[in-house]
């Protein structure tokens, strides 16, 4: 805290104390104490009083000295007492004030790379931390939010950069990044997650006196095409339905080409009549030339009753007699807020009117002579025109808005005044500003005394610049850059009679920073994929955060960029008023008491005190904006009482006390001062996001758009700096674009359109080519020409009819090249661009077949041997669709490790299915870590899947802590099975990723509440796999499943919930009628609990019903009456999901024995493993979600127990007859490497030979397509279009698809079923119509993509369920093949039905 002291020797001693009513801890504050006419030594003492204690801050004699101290607020209350006392031999004064003390807090903001994200994208963000002077703070701050947490985040030069991924299916809406500061307060930054599409076209639609409709590409060029516009004025209450749309609004339609400017005759819309809404709405559509792409835009404009509007600005609340009252009329505007120039405004004060003329901005400056004013206020009116009175309820009433203002009298006992002339503009922080001060002094009071004016500048509530005439500010750094955002200037003096004259004014200063940061590109326009230089200029030692984002992001979410206003708003105090801060208000307990005057009589004439209003101003009100204050002298003085003597006196202006050049930023002044051709394939949304210290070379992405770049820098010396945003237009004056469908079916044809654009001022002669490929055939739609003319701002489209020949991804490479030619284009000579002479573009297409895919594999034994492999295909195989591969791994979990993201070739759209993505990562990480095989690459991938799985699973959490398959909807309760599994998995995942403890605690508490008195758990929710229900006591199986989850968390056996659950299982174990599935669960639960006798008993009973086949062992569910093994057309029949699951539980029961499983246990376990791995799919998963999760857990446990680090390797050879096709070497270092070889001939006979020592896993995958042929199927599926026949040209562009499905299988109902609708080539689903399906009771969820629609059904019964949604044509395709609709049981995937459909105008065609 710094005291500010001034002394002047004189017989009449005076003092003034100024104390900011808000002070901060851990910083230097200033208290100003002014002692005038001092003729003796005095002692200054300043103390703080709080909680019954005193703390002395300053105790000094006579001299000004700076004492620093740090003081933390001791209590929750920020209110303390500050006492200032001055004592000498004859002089003594004492003042106590209540002040607010605020703990110093750092300024923190969070910046995300974008304001809006798509599902599956990575959210990148930065944290910046500064002090209140915008200098970096390097500390460790934890960051926390709902999905992720980083502990002990270390900042470098006040900055840190973090990121996290979004799942592919996050809950859409607003998210928060929350940063917890050392003070305990939080800083939040929001961002939005939603599905969105970037249009290369931007629609700008506005209503001026004429209609302006502009469609532009994001790189700024206009879009050619047909424009349709409708402009309407809606009725205020369209209640009549008899006339349809006609009764809603009065409308006008018109068409045009490209950018449209049209004068609209407003008489049609009856703008002056009532009965309509007071706005005009416009909707515009453009169909892009060449591609047929359609884009919509809309806008509206209000219809105003206001003809003109006048407003005052920068008016002082008080007038002071003798000092001109100056003000300004804010731009006089019309009803559209456009300034009215050369308009006459009348300024009226009382009965006096003065006319002024508005300038070219519609403004008026005026001045009022106040010399003869004596009233308690003056009333000011600004008037442009009178409002005509023409009211009629059928017509709108026009008006001219006038401005009114009341200025109150400013009281001074001596009628002496100070006034700081305001500055209406925002001050430039790079320049000094002279300030004019007016004063009027009563000569009878000042007599021959020297009057000294003093000033203070306060920033953010604190005194920063105390100044007296004999003290000069000499530091160049004291410039306006340190005065933002608002500088509060106080000018004052004390008259010889002890009266305080004061005035203050606020000056708005440009928000700028000491660290001058500049950012610029070498060129404002660059070719896609070309090199450019991004330049940075900042103070030495700065660390700069740079970003560059596609402009389209800010079209979707404007006003989301970091600005200087954003940073300055972080300041806890920007301006203070009348002892109020946040929710605190401080009273001034010892204000100077006023003297009440009485009426006096002189010579028989009575003199009465003037009756001043409550709003009258005085020096007290001036100072109480920021300061507590006390002043006094040996003469009696008053603040609020009035002196009767009225003296007329001249006024003087502008006392000037100059300083050295560049010193004071506020003075009292006499007068105011005046390439090569790359292929484009990189199209990001965020281009640059990194921390730099120097300028960096960058490569422009391939997107033709405008990039918006920004940067801010932090320096320990210069602090924070923000660069103005810059733009780089990635643009080729001539470039190519391809229009094609997302996918087609083999045999279909489509038109591939290549369009070349040019924005050069002269014509080009362009050669357009489509590179040949064995994967497709292409023939020109028109007569092929060697080159084409493309003139200024024009385009040319060339089309090929394409027939794909290969399956899978097919790449198309097209190019356009500007040729040097003497052949003119019309009468114009062609030119060649200086750069960008050729543009090459590659796009991919998926070629499919309209049939299903089946697969199988075999296992190579663990010991050296030779084994034949015969690969056969059925007779009805689709020609050329068969393909096979042979793969070798050194680990039975190798396939799963390689395919953690796609263990199932099924959708993951519910809470149970999501766990199939989540849980296996835990088992894999544990296994690889225990066997010391975990690499950073695998760890990073697995943790990434854990993070996304955790994030997605929270979508299915209920408010009571439970989880269900589709989340909290329609009042459905949580699912006890799923909640138990999520509880176990999240508790185990906490070792690898951040998991909020409340999610674990909530789920555990929800399960505990459902534990009954006998220790069993009450069932809740629906188990969608009803294969586990038949003959199963749900209560016992659920209790065993929940007990397993609690023990694996792990909770101790002594935990009350676990102890009671085991009692339930021990009681149930005494029953002889226990289902195989339940017994398998109980065996594993007893094994985890260490109850060996119970475990052994369960395993003995299970072994008695085991099925042994070819040296393997497994368990199967009891066969129901009439249920037989189906003869499905697959290479190898995989077991049902329920049998894989129960067999896996038995395997884990054998392996979970303390201290270790016996030799017999391991021998039995190996037999079980031999059967399990034959049930795996090619990616390492199984047939459904539950069996995949449990089986992988069991296999990881077996692999860890049997893992051996062999020093020798295994050699595997794939032979075709006598020829060796491929030789594989499996060693310790590559045992997790998936080595594969395509099989050249199908059908065919092959042989596998294995030599060496070690364990090897060999897998053959055969895939082929068959025509859908069904005889007896468990579902009845019927699909048709609406309309069913070709009723017109529009029928092929938009139609509805109707689906009818019912269950005809051997069970009462199906499990959860999926209806998978494949889109026709060139067609896309209407997402709103698909989402409406979720209103059906049995529809739990829908998903849409470019080529599929998935409908999740809770179950399918024998009652027919009907669903309809809309399909739209995106790109025309010829020879359209039918598309498949498939319904299948999610847990019994062998149960399915197929149906076909085609577009109405293609129905029946092949």
Automatic annotation (TrEMBL):
Q: Where is the Alpha-2-macroglobulin bait region domain?
A: 418-556
State one molecular function term (GO): serine-type endopeptidase inhibitor activity
State where the protein is found: Secreted
Q: Tell me where on the tree of life, at the top rank, the source sits.
A: Eukaryota
Does the keyword Phosphoprotein feature in the UniProt annotation? no
Instruction: Report the coiled-coil segments.
Output: none
Q: Please give the chief subcellular localization of this protein.
A: secreted
Domain Alpha-macroglobulin receptor-binding as annotated: residue spans: 1310-1397
| InterPro entries linked to this entry | A-macroglobulin_rcpt-bd, A-macroglobulin_rcpt-bd_sf, A2M/Complement_sys, A2M_N_BRD, A2M_TED, Alpha-macroglob_thiol-ester_cl, Alpha-macroglobulin_TED, Ig-like_fold
A Pfam match is A2M_recep
Domain Alpha-2-macroglobulin intervals = 686-770
Q: Name one GO cellular component term.
A: extracellular space
Read off the PROSITE patterns from this record. Answer: ALPHA_2_MACROGLOBULIN
* Entry keyword set: Disulfide bond, Glycoprotein, Protease inhibitor, Secreted, Serine protease inhibitor, Signal, Thioester bond
Q: Which PANTHER family match?
A: ALPHA-2-MACROGLOBULIN, MACROGLOBULIN / COMPLEMENT
Similarity comment: family membership: Belongs to the protease inhibitor I39 (alpha-2-macroglobulin) family.
Quaternary structure and interacting proteins, as annotated: Homotetramer; disulfide-linked.
UniProt-recorded name of the protein: Uncharacterized protein
Species in which this protein is naturally found:
Anolis carolinensis
